[in-house]
Sequence to fold (510 residues):
Amino acid sequence: MEEVRELLREVYSLVFSKAYGLVEFFREWYAWVLLVLFLLYLISTYNRLIGLKNRVSEARAGMDVYLKQRADLVPNLVASVRRYMEHERELLERITFLRSRLLEAKDDKEKFSLEGELGSLLGRLLMVAENYPTLRANENFLELQRSLFEIEDRISASRRIYNVAVTDYNNALEMIPSNFIASLMGLQKAEWFEVEERDRQVPNVGEMFK
Amino acid sequence: MIDWKAIERNRKRLRFLFILYDVLYGVFHFLALLSLLLFVLSAGKGYFKELYWYYLPLFAAFFFVFPAALFTSLRDRIPSQWWNYYYSNALLPFVRENLKGFEYEYYRFFPREEFIVSYLFYDYPHPAVYTGQDYLKGSYKGKPLECSWIGCGYYNWSDSYTNIFRGLVLKLSLYKSVDGFVLLYPQGSSSLSGFKRLSLDSEEFNRSFHVYSDSEFTAFYVLDHALMERLVKFKRAYPKARFSFIRNTLYIALPDFYLFYIPSIDQSVLKVEKEYKQNLSLFFSLLDVLDIERMPVKLS
Fold:
């Protein structure tokens, strides 16, 4: 018991001396300057992290607009080609299935993966459509094809903006010392929207419209 | 086939005439001044008993002024004679021979208003002095293009002339129509006030160009990875190049670059053909670097 008391006394004196040292420290003017600088750093880092997070959300919202436009185009596209492409029933069903799955996707990872696959299959559909001369003569299909190409370009641009925003945001979350503040704020890393190299191979527009 | 030797002979003939008229002008001018001096110095000295002798130097001066004026006029006509002769006998045939299918006009150039709205030199928005030449229009590898040599500048407060740009401006029509503009200025150019410099997803591209746009999306939409790669290659081949994407047009500025020129009467024309060919070869090799066939230019 005596030993415990001795230990407590030592701890108390240590804490007291440290606290006293802190009080002494704040009697100096430069201590307040340091404190103000530290607070300013905290505020600026907090604001930067919030800015980066908002930029990711903004880029994501911009991308979602074009992804939705593409998803809206799918039923029309499938309907216009179904009559001509009886042999590609499986491909068309997969596209329709992916579109419906997209609406139910829970997290970004799943959604991006589905979007990537959908983009790839639509590209394949347009490639396959080359083999159907009657389809290529269909004005409605050609119009949908043009719209799809334009939307694909827009998706590609917005995806790159999103990925740049995510890179900046994730870097800030991982780099010292902003990672400490980020963990205190409870910020989570964002998902990249990666597209496989084969999915990027969009048919040559010039060739298709010759 | 252009007979460059005949052109050179004609240049020498015109140059001889130029010097001859210049000398004759000098001689008559001198005689007129001398006569006038004689008249002034002899006034009131009583050298001449007869009055007509006294006025003779004045008449002589009057007489010498006319041939001096005539030879000046003849001399001053020669450079324009040379220009017209060279243009119709050397330059136009050369262009027809080497740029088949191209429309060419030496005295035509992009209007000042178009140069201003191209935003190629947004940092100097209103050039006070603006001139140009060498308008070329045609298609290369099936893609339409237009270009023209432009020289512009301004006078600053101390009335000294500052050059903004002297070089070739190239214009291509894009099939991607964008709402807004994207400017690519070489590294080291002054930053544009009112615009935030954009960073794209290619480190090398960001190192090569300062990118400005009224919208981040427009910049990413226009500059896909393949185009960025080609622009970086172009930059390596011609480091001072500037690009601007305005709505559905791509403008390229190549400072200190020219295709053709009309040599002065003092300059031999025998090496000019080689120089023209070198310039054309460099011009088309730059277009090849840009891979104009894969450029998003309008399908002809």
User: Anything to note?
Assistant: Confidence is low (pLDDT under 50) at residues 197-210 of chain A. Residues 45-208 of chain A form a domain with the de novo design (two linked rop proteins) fold (CATH 1.20.1440.20). The radius of gyration of chain A is 29 Å. Chain A touches chain B at residues 62, 153-154, 156-158, 160-161, 163-164, 205-206, 209-210 (CB under 8 Å).
